[in-house]
Design goal:
By secondary structure, chain A is α+β, with helices and mostly antiparallel strands. In chain A, 55% of the residues lie in helices and 15% in strands. In chain A, helix 25 (748-756) packs across helix 28. The two termini of chain B are 18 Å apart. The chains are: A alpha+beta (851), B mainly beta (367).
């Protein structure tokens, strides 16, 4: 672009500093949020992958099974195969540290085999001179990675959040097995390992944690010349049901797929923020172009060709996009860094526990998001630029044509809006693509477009109803909007997008929260809950412990839950099985089917109740046959009902405890639900239980506490969506401000005339405020309608398809009403502030300048 | 005979052990019973099956080979029902002395005993570490076979037996030091006829030759005051066998020695310490470790005088990276020294071939 042109176009951006700055900021926010989500997730996944690599070492393939492990007999079978050069068995224990929040991942390994497959896990004894291989065989000795050593030597926290001295003191660390404490000696380091982990002798670990005969993993190094694919083909037939053979990298991929739906949702929210930014560019450019209509006509008359005018205007948009994008990239990195410090690498969603990611600059991702910012800027300018270039110079030069001629006429869009609504409905019918609800996202875009297109129609329909105004100001504001609805479209578009986003998120999150709350009340009907550890952790309740609980004074009845994580196929994430009495102290929030097993089952299959996610993924309903790999065999169940489960996104099935114990012989228990005798207080029973088992070995919770903690976690998970809502509202207000600042500038003549007619400055201020309120009001109404529709799409399509759970629609009426009214008032205030500049000029000058 | 690995293994485990039945002592007067004693004795602290020998291929190239399986009772995890509990370890070591290579090719495998994978069975010779194995039959007349696969070599060999086991020491009770508690149960299988295949890198050749098997078990570690030992096992050309060893102190003096000579007809002669003499004649310094080994020896057994010469000088084993031991273990030829000849004179005719093991030349083996 030539220097004069650069002055002509880009200088215009500087002239309207406020509008440019706000457009720029909106784009920056959209870019920043999108990039931050991407960076945070990428860093967490990278760190997780590095951990996997370090632990897997030189392994070509890994045998993995249920989280609780599988029969070690498979180890000999695989180790003797000619395809296998070396096989290294691993028992992974998530060792609970008694009374503490933290846990320690302990890998039980055979150090003779680790040497050939995962040298990174080779322990190094502290005591010099002694042959480390034999020191590492001793029971009761754990070797800690440097990260673990550092973490455990720092002061810790109790499960209740109180500060505690370091878990590792005098080279001793207590870990929990069942409801007992074991003191392990920290005998040395694991120099090759990264992440917080400990290494122990496999035999000692099996004994210490009560896992005799069980392995969690077998890492295989293949014979030279045997490809992983060949080995997989040959060895898969040897694997019992529920056990998979895969490349070590697959674990990271699996985790990526677990969090994918969550991530895509966040990215889509960022995209909507960016879209709103685009709208803002559109509205400011549209007004700016309208104002410069005569200027452009003159330039055209002086010989500027149409294409050059177009390019110049697009360059304006691009500059806003580039600067906003750059700002956004910087802000995105800052946001990611802040998020790592505050909520960890999982955006508060709990996918990557125990991973400490490092922020790194990603050139490719940064460039991609920068380009998105430029696209938003250019796309926002496209229509106004085309309109400006299309105008015949002679016509635009005619005096009195008026700046408003450049604005859209704002009618005849009703049919298009209806078409968009039809598209939205059709998009809802599209099935998800690889668990990504593409149809749902498309429907959101269509609804948004329909709401914006319907705004003039809405103005036509609503404005006559408001015609019976009292004051002159009101009638003037009303008349102006009725006569020139194009303005409303421009200023309202930004409002609609942001209101729709905020309203839809508010309705969805509220519905979700209300549903979760109800669900918690349903699943937690007992008086008291006792837990030794999370699933697959080292703490558990065995029959003697349960007998002890039952014998505690005040306990009327004890029901138990065994939680196990299974693998239904090679590719699928872990599936949860809950073994517990179907009818008892635990509730089951059924959405279909019944608590009664299917009567007259010809096969005599045991009953199972599956979660909605399981029902969706495996196409199950009452009466369906469902197979689960339990105890190394495939066991069929008859589905009796489908229940709502917000806790396990990848699917869960509930089976009767007695069926589970009969099938597997596993009589350990994770949780016990206690019904108390009349008159017994939960506090007294809890105290008695703590004395019996040691307070540090069990977690006792009242249903109310569990509920409070769960909702707290819920709110933390949605923290980022609240942030997005706030951003969207601010962007919408920016839209009002820029539009009115620009409009006020073009209406100086009009205001001057009104002053001549006797209006005071204050009255003109009120006029602008009223116009702002009316415009925002229209936008808010359209936004509310659009937002409600989007909320429905979020709840019924996007959540259903991404997370496979249903919820009851619960509209936060009060909150929405307050939100709508405050937005209208804020819009009035913002319009008034933005128009201040126009009112300050002397009436005479203003009229003179215009004519 | 003993090898360095084992002593280290025993030494390492001696500390921090669990409770459990003690190691049984090695006592004089206990008769060895075959085939029972061909198999493992898991109660004892250490045990090894040690095969050494010479191989000749169709082109007439001669090479030495060595294969050892050790069993170690750790006294760790004896109360642990886990099959992975490291109660028994099996370590295997193999080497080939190929003059064309100029030094030893060697490899090792080790593991905790695990049924079907890593074992030292009782009742017959059957030891394995993954795909490395040594197996005998269920009688003292049965042949042995072995298979080894390492990166740069491997062999699959059959060993035919033509005589009953030769019991060393007092009916198999072999004293190692003046204190009679320092002893092992020890028998040898001289003159095993070898046939099979040998692979060096990618080339496999058919080989035949003669080998020597030692089987020894004990609960003792290296005697107090001992720094190392020198041992030979020689298959004599006349069908007889010669085994001799001495334990050295820190000044290189013998603190104990013994020898067994056997004839083709099965007659055995046990030699007391006073009848066994080892005298170094020529030394070789390892360019890798700087350690000096006596590679040529004058050996005296009763009234016979012999000369030992190596197949090649460099048969040093440096396994510092794995077991930490450095020693010399290689193929040697045995020559007659004529009546009246002086040390340093030209030796007489070759009498036989076998193996020489020398330990403790680097530093005193750690206890």
């Amino acid at each position: 672009m030539s220097v004069p042109l650069r002055r002509l176009f880009l200088a215009s951006l500087l002239r309207r500093r406020l509008a440019s700055a706000l457009s720029l900021l909106a784009i920056a926010l959209g870019v920043a949020l999108g990039l931050a989500v991407h960076l945070i997730h990428g860093a967490a996944l990278d760190e997780f992958g590095r951990g996997i690599r370090a632990v897997a070492g030189k392994a070509d393939l890994q045998v993995v099974g249920p989280r609780d492990g599988f029969d070690e007999a498979l180890f000999v079978t695989l180790a003797r195969r000619p395809e296998v050069a070396a096989a290294s068995p691993v028992l992974e224990i998530d060792a609970r540290l008694p009374g503490r929040e933290e846990s320690l991942r302990i890998l039980g390994v055979d150090l003779f085999r680790v040497l050939r497959v995962q040298p990174g896990l080779m322990p190094l004894a502290d005591r010099g001179g002694e042959d480390l291989r034999f020191a590492a065989l001793r029971p009761g000795v754990v070797f800690l990675s440097d990260d673990a050593h550092q973490r455990l030597s720092a002061p810790g926290h109790s499960s209740e959040g109180e500060a505690l001295p370091p878990a590792l003191a005098d080279a001793r660390i207590a870990v929990q097995s069942g409801v007992r404490s074991l003191v392990l000696e920290a005998g040395g380091r694991v120099p090759g390992a990264s992440g917080v982990l400990g290494v122990m002798d496999l035999g000692a670990a099996q004994q210490a944690f009560g896992r005799i005969g069980v392995l969690s993993r077998i890492d295989l190094r293949l014979t030279v010349g045997v490809s992983p694919a060949t080995a997989q083909a040959a060895l898969s037939a040897l694997l019992p049901p529920g056990i998979a053979l895969r490349a070590p990298e697959a674990a990271a991929g699996e985790l990526g797929s677990l969090s994918r739906a969550y991530r895509v949702n966040l990215t889509m929210l960022a995209a909507i923020a960016l879209l709103t930014g685009g709208f803002l560019v559109f509205s400011t450019q549209l007004l700016s172009v309208a104002r410069r209509r005569r200027e452009f006509a003159l330039l055209r008359a002086l010989g500027l060709v149409r294409a050059e005018l177009m390019r110049g205007l697009l360059a304006e948009g691009a500059v806003v996009g580039v600067v906003g994008g750059l700002l956004g990239v910087a802000l995105g990195h800052a946001l990611a860094a802040g998020a790592f410090r505050l909520v960890g690498g999982d955006l508060g969603a709990g996918f990557f526990q125990g991973v400490a990611p490092q922020l790194a600059f990603h050139p490719a991702a940064s460039l991609a998001y920068l380009l998105l910012g430029v696209v938003a800027g250019v796309a926002g300018t496209w229509l106004p630029a085309r309109a400006a270039a299309a105008v015949a110079p002679a016509r635009a030069l005619r005096a009195g044509e008026g700046e408003r001629a450049g604005l859209p006429r704002g009618d005849g869009r009703g049919r298009l809006a209806a078409a968009m609504l039809v598209f939205a409905v059709l998009a809802c019918l599209v099935p998800p693509l690889g668990s990504i609800p593409v149809g749902g996202y498309a429907a959101v875009v269509f609804v948004l477009a329909a709401a914006i297109l319907a705004l003039p129609v809405l103005a036509h329909a609503l404005l006559p109803l408001l015609a019976r105004g009292r004051s002159a100001t009101w009638r003037l504001a009303h008349a102006r909007l009725a006569a020139a609805p194009g303005q409303a479209v421009v200023a309202g578009a930004g409002v609609i997008a942001s209101v729709a986003l905020a309203v839809s998120m508010a309705i969805m999150v509220n519905s979700f929260r209300v549903s979760v709350d109800e669900w918690l009340a349903q699943v937690l009907p007992a008086d008291l809950y006792v837990r030794a550890s999370v699933a697959s952790g080292s703490g558990y309740l065995d029959p003697p412990a349960l007998a002890g609980i039952a014998a505690t004074q005040g306990v009327a009845r004890v029901d138990t839950t065994r939680l196990i994580n299974l693998r239904l196929s090679d590719a699928e994430p872990l599936f949860t099985v809950l073994a517990r009495p179907a009818q008892g102290n635990w509730g089951l929030p059924l959405v279909s089917g019944s608590m009664e097993p299917v009567a007259g089952d010809a096969e005599g299959l045991p009953p199972a109740w599956v979660s909605e996610a399981a029902a969706d993924r495996h196409d199950l309903a009452r009466g369906s046959r469902f197979e689960l790999p339990l105890g190394g065999r495939v066991q069929a169940f008859r589905v009796a009902g489908v229940w709502r489960d917000y806790a396990r996104q990848h699917g869960a099935a509930l089976i009767e405890s007695r069926d589970y114990v009969a099938l597997t012989g596993d009589d350990r228990v994770n949780d016990a639900a206690l019904l108390l005798e009349p008159g017994a207080t939960p506090a007294a029973v809890a105290q008695a239980l703590r004395e019996r088992f040691g307070a540090e070995h069990i977690t006792i919770a009242l249903p109310g506490e569990i509920r409070a903690i769960s909702l707290q976690i819920f709110d933390r998970t949605f923290l980022i969506t609240y942030l997005m809502e706030a951003v969207a509202v601010v962007i919408g207000l920016f839209g009002i401000a820029t539009t009115f600042a620009a409009l006020a500038a073009t209406r100086q003549g009009e205001f001057g005339m009104l002053r001549h007619l006797g209006f005071t400055r204050a009255e003109i201020g009120r006029l602008i405020a009223t116009e702002g309120a009316l415009t925002a009001g229209l936008g808010v109404i359209a936004g509310l309608a659009g937002g409600a529709a989007i909320a429905w799409v979020l709840i019924e399509i996007i959540n259903r398809q991404s997370f496979h759970w249903s919820m009851e629609l619960a509209v936060p009426w009060g909150g929405l009403a307050i939100f709508a009214v405050s937005l209208v008032l804020l819009a009035a205030l913002v319009a008034r502030l933005a128009g201040r500049h126009a009112m300050r000029q002397s009436a005479v000058l203003a009229v003179k300048a215009d004519w | 005979m003993l090898a360095a690995l084992l002593m280290l293994a025993g030494g390492g485990v001696a500390q921090g052990q669990d409770a459990g039945p003690p190691y049984p002592p090695v006592l004089s007067g206990k008769a060895l019973v075959f085939p029972q004693d061909l198999g493992a004795h898991p109660d004892y602290r250490t045990e090894w099956w040690y095969i050494t020998g010479w191989l000749r291929d169709a082109a007439g190239v001669e090479r030495g080979f060595q294969l050892t399986f050790f069993r170690v009772r750790t006294r760790i995890g004896e109360d642990n029902p886990s099959r992975f509990a490291p109660r028994q370890l099996v370590l295997a070591h193999a080497a080939v002395a190929d003059p064309a290579t100029g030094r030893l090719r060697h490899a090792e495998r080790s593991g905790r005993a695990y049924p079907g994978l890593v074992e030292a069975l009782e009742g017959r010779t059957a030891v394995r570490v993954d795909d490395w194995l040594l197996e005998g039959g269920d009688s003292a007349q049965a042949a042995y076979r072995s298979r080894i696969e390492a990166d740069d070599f491997g062999f699959t060999l059959d060993f035919a037996v033509d005589r009953a086991p030769v019991l060393n020491g007092r009916e198999g009770y072999s004293q190692k030091a003046p204190d009679p508690l320092n002893a092992s149960y020890y028998y040898s299988r001289p003159q095993l006829a070898v046939s099979g295949t040998l692979r060096l890198d990618g080339t496999t050749v058919a080989v035949s030759g003669h080998a020597w098997l030692d089987h020894e078990w004990s609960s003792e570690i290296l005697p107090e005051g001992a720094r190392g030992w020198d041992w030979i096992g020689i298959n004599l050309a006349d069908g007889g066998g010669l085994m001799a060893f001495r334990m050295r102190d820190h000044d290189g003096r013998a603190i104990w020695a013994a020898a067994t000579t056997s004839a083709r007809d099965g007659s055995i002669r046990i030699h007391p310490p006073g009848e066994v003499g080892f005298k170094p004649l020529r030394h070789w310094r390892s360019p890798r470790t700087g350690i000096e080994y006596p590679v040529e020896w004058a050996v005296t057994i009763a009234d016979r005088r012999y000369r030992l010469r190596p197949l090649m000088d460099d048969q040093e084993l440096d396994s510092r990276a794995s077991t930490g031991a450095i020693y010399w273990e290689g193929a040697v030829r045995l020559y007659e020294v004529e009546e009246g000849a002086e040390v340093g004179d030209e030796a007489g005719p070759e009498l036989g071939r076998g193996y020489l093991e020398m330990t403790g030349y680097a530093e005193r083996l750690r206890m």
